[in-house]
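Hi everyone,

Forwarding the result from last night's run.
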Amino acid sequence: MTEQHTYRVIVRGTWDGLTEEARARLLAEADRHGLASMRFTEEGTLTYEPRPLKHFSMRYVVVSDAADGEEMAGAIAEDRAESALRALGYGWTALRSTVTDLDTMKVNRKSASRR
């Protein structure tokens, strides 16, 4: 059995070639896609600032083989982001991802003397 790791991936990009309809929809829905909506989910959550309507990020949880590493988790998340953006009719460019492997992440806990 292959070891699975859980990754948190932030995919960032820039809006590009938005139609007037897409731009209007993004502006109308901006309050649902602000800082309060930042969650890591398998289907991804979209966040952006309406003014200026320039950049966005999408947050994903990706579970994949540990042997494939962070690079594969990033590629999977970017593919999910492309599919979601395409389905919504939004144009984008310059996707890049930041990956954190939750299974290897070190957690620093305060000792009792530092509390």
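The chain has one domain: 4-101.

Cheers,
N.
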